Amino acid sequence: MKTLLKTSVLERFLKYVTFDTQSDPNSPSVPSTAKQLVLLDALVEELKALGLADAVRDEFGIVMATLPANTKKANVPVVGLLAHVDTSPELSGANVRPIVHRSYPGGDLVLPDDPAAIIRAADNPDLAGKKGEDIVTASGATLLGADDKSGVAVIMALLQYFKERPEITHGTLRVSFTPDEEIGRGVRKFDVQRFGAYCAYTLDGAALGTYECETFSADAMNVTFQGFNTHPGFATGKMVNAIKVAADFLNRLPKHGLAPETTSGRDGFVHPNTVEASVDRTVVKFIVRDFVTAGLAEKETFLEKLALATVADWPGSSVTIEVKAQYRNMREVLARFPDVVANARDAIERAGLAPVETGIRGGTDGSILSEMGLPTPNLFTGQHNFHSRLEWISAQDLERSVETCLELVKLWEEKA
Ligand SMILES: [Zn+2]
Question: How many whole angstroms from 22 Cα to the centroid of ligand 1?
């Protein structure tokens, strides 16, 4: 293992997690919660203090800033680094009290605010490799927010590192901090043109050395059953109960596959997650997921046939189907940018780590940005157990993440 860099990353991380930046899927505003702006505005001031004079936060809560190039080469591509400031709506992010367990001796980590909150070595195989490292956790009552304040801290620490070492040559670096990733909306208003980068990387990944170039492709699908309602006392031969039609339809879904609870790896699924039910009209809302975009249409056709077969057994009922695209597998874009992926892998290697490419059974901001024309793989920061009170991250992994980004920026300059 290489000697670790010594940067401001841990100190910054411990500061950023104390900001409550929970996003809210039920809020119509942009960003979804005003408290995210408190951290975003603080970051603008810190960026300016680090010499990124153009740092600015727009009306949508998106921060952008430029570290100007200091290389003599004119053809170095502009590279972007991104992280999201919001934390999961599933768990409180208020009054986060980070704890640094110095020189972790192995075994379970007990969190003081709740005796039931124990990070068990048996459930966390990655902890075994962290003996002697400094493990950061929350106190047991909240999440930690390493997802994704680790990414924010890594980017800021890298910028400080560059400031302190002007002899390191690099191209133009664009950085951005965004809100509302956890509710899938943060980069919908991202101005790819204004960002002006050839490619970008989100710092929002998990275990040491991992990088992600593949996500699900995703659609939402509403299956609406129309029945006929009338006074139940006078309903004989007239009423058609859409709730019963929908129940029959749901009961016809496969029991042994095609569902989140029965698939893994590269298998996609259909997943009914909400039912809005009344006798007259019942809507079954699905999410549809597959690594291959063409697989979405196959699954949607399957559901449509199943719905039509169901209404055929319920005279007087009918069904309408509505499909909405959500996001696409970033691989479909990244396949055209092999240099973007190769430099990620090489940077991890040059930081002294073994690169591991993994796929995400979900989406990232990068899936949306890639589709918008900015190829954006995801890089590890060392996050574990995100969206949980049992979140943890190693301070040394944070340093290795900074070093990976450093190598990445240097690689783009060297190869130009
Ligand atoms: Zn995240």
Answer: 12
Q: Which of 163, 184, 200, 190 is nearest to 68 (CA)?
A: 163
Torsion sign (Cα): 205, 44, 373, 337 = negative
CA distance 14 to 19: 10
Please tell me the distance between residue 212's alpha carbon and the centre of ligand 1 in angstroms. 13
> Which SS3 state, helix, strand or coil, does residue 181 take?
coil
Q: What is the pLDDT of residues 26-84, one digit of tens each?
A: 999 999 999 999 999 999 999 999 999 999 999 999 999 999 999 999 999 999 999 99
- Contacts of residue 236, defined as CB under 8 A and 6 or more positions apart, other chains included, come to none
Q: Residue 397's CB: how many other CB atoms inside 10 A?
A: 31
CA dihedral sign of residues 169, 173, 355, 2: positive
* Phi, psi (rounded to 5 degrees) for 100: -100, 110
Which two structure tokens, joined as six digits, stand for 377? 């793989």
Has 181 been annotated as catalytic? yes
Rounded to 5 degrees, what angle do the CA atoms 177, 181, 187 make? 65
**Residue from 181, 182, 397, 413 carrying the catalytic annotation:** 181
